[in-house]
């Protein structure tokens, strides 16, 4: 797609705060989520999981479980084939351990029974003979030669010798002469950082209902960010044709990247196939923590040189990410994102992907970027502090802008970083006074954003209303935004449009709801589908009027003659054209299919004030303001919601959230009591300032807004705490014990 | 396991059910009575997604046994609206975009209603501490606090 899609225009409906179409269902308890569906003859599934961090599975004896009255099927890895491609095999092996359990919580067997109590009892009757193997859960330890190897034979060719086979991939990005750059610096800061793994923490555990019939057809209902991708994975694992597996996405109770793959769906399908009945499988919270995608934990080294007037002369980052027991897909993003906010002559980033005996990482909102940018923004802050420079002035002086060659390669088109920095500098928050033990921190954030495969149908109903069929689960109000864009384009009221998320049999392939892509890409496809329908409606009017199609144009929701030469006819509204469609050629529908390019990158800046209690080590967030470029905020309420939600997830990451492993390699805090996400009483209001620097790649200028918001809080909080206590913090989370330790050591 | 016969009132209607002695009220509501508005987010009383009231008291229904419902008055999200008329809290949650994924919403609405019945004019801090047992991962709570306060003001006639 070209970068000249955007045309400046006045909006009539886009940008208004309309009611979401699923609102009433969701406030009355009627909305159907993953665990809310039932089917005739339904069985309950349950999964047995490894209590060991690393163990060879010598044998699994399921005979006693199968003999229990009410048990209808038992599944182990033996029931599945071995997919040829590495990727599908990894997904399958993560759903059901084959030969070895690779982490605490790894699935080893599953049962389907007439009720939950019987399924639970059956799990206790399965005898697994484990040979416990050495394990490793720390990223730095896992890289050392001689570390226990999680999986053999996964090392990519470009990985240098001298590391453990757990190091599977190496990345390098950048440009310019680093030595010359550092030589120009008045001060160079080198610092190392560590961050703990965190979980996406969606409130709805993974859940699905699978029904496989004896003629080889299957239906799957599940909570997912991408049911088309679920179909691809499950069909690959089960050896089915895509046409025979229909996947329907339930309402989704949060995902944040964690529901972009499968964990239980292939198991439920296999249980249903063996039992010959529908099977419902719902994870417990303990299973969600132990066996679904947390994010990476990281260790990093940052080196930045700066002149005394605040110009960065050279910058270097080495990032080591562990992504659990399988090759990690996130390292490359972090390596690319680390210095994206800066216009640099000399920059280099190195990334290392490392396997450990932990659950396979899954995407989490701007995957890879928060921990990389945390480390970079901490060092930039330290340099500003050293020189006594204003941290916003320094960022403005070095900010990436239109024409900047980014640290990861591409040259930026119109971007909003400078505008967000200037908005932050002009905001009263930046100048507000601070008290004792209080500190202010700020950080830039960045995310690439994504377009991807998208397919939309727009049906004009004979009563003048419109139905839109799209294929991306609505994770935060996207149906409202899509209806708004269609209303704008068609010139009919928002309330006359209903957008639904269709199943996999109803549309061509749609990529997952990820990469902040839905409002951008599905919006773009919706606008184009509406234009397709408009063309057809103009043709119908032309036919009725007996003039050329080219002599008809669309204005304010109606076909009108294009000019005085076209003839004199009163406007025909969408409703009038639709009402007589049977006489003019039949139903009217618009379609659009695209692999969308042109998703504009998104920048944000966060400001935060904290107060640290020196006796308890607890940090209280006093004030928080988010500045972010949305391109065009289609539904401002839900844009603000993304900014606020991302900020608070980042606050949790910075202050409390942490996967804690014991010496035995088992996760010690797989509950919401011990894995502490922010609660209402932890937080202030989260102020938001939306900037609108149009994305040239979208007809309305829209940029994705979902992910950037989680990136800045880590460094913003760390910088604020560091200023409050007068000590530079370099490890996340900054939980009370860590802050007390830092204070005690001073 | 022999099941227990329970007679109870849910959202003003009489109900009878059989449940196992160790079956939670949440499982009874969801799996025996089809009231799936209460959600299981954790099963350990940490997230509040299963919030209901028993005899007017706010509880996590995952921590209450079905058998304890004998003779009790239970209120769930399904009973909050009066037919087509949404409760002011429900209306303000939609108008104020106080939900994104919506899975915590039933629990938060039940909890907020229980607070406003005790304290029709809570401070933001009182509200935040009352809702501290209801996790929301999408919104950062900002719009939830605003929506509850807007509903409270309307209910007070302010």
UniProtKB/TrEMBL annotation, chain A:
Database matches in Pfam families: Ald_Xan_dh_C, MoCoBD_1, MoCoBD_2
Keyword S-adenosyl-L-methionine included in the entry's annotation: no
Domain Aldehyde oxidase/xanthine dehydrogenase a/b hammerhead, residue spans: 28-134
Keywords: Molybdenum, Oxidoreductase
Keyword flag Oxidoreductase: yes
Name of the protein in its database record: Xanthine dehydrogenase family protein molybdopterin-binding subunit
Lineage of source species: Bacteria, Pseudomonadati, Pseudomonadota, Alphaproteobacteria, Rhodobacterales
UniProtKB/TrEMBL annotation, chain B:
InterPro entries, per the entry: 2Fe-2S-bd, 2Fe-2S-bd_dom_sf, 2Fe-2S_ferredoxin-like_sf, 2Fe-2S_ferredoxin-type, 2Fe2S_fd_BS, Beta-grasp_dom_sf, Diverse_Oxidoreductases
Pfam families: Fer2, Fer2_2
Keywords: 2Fe-2S, Iron, Iron-sulfur, Metal-binding, Oxidoreductase
Domain 2Fe-2S ferredoxin-type positions: 4-80
PROSITE patterns named among the record's database cross-references: 2FE2S_FER_1, 2FE2S_FER_2
Range of residues in the leader sequence: none
Full protein name: (2Fe-2S)-binding protein
Organism: Albidovulum salinarum
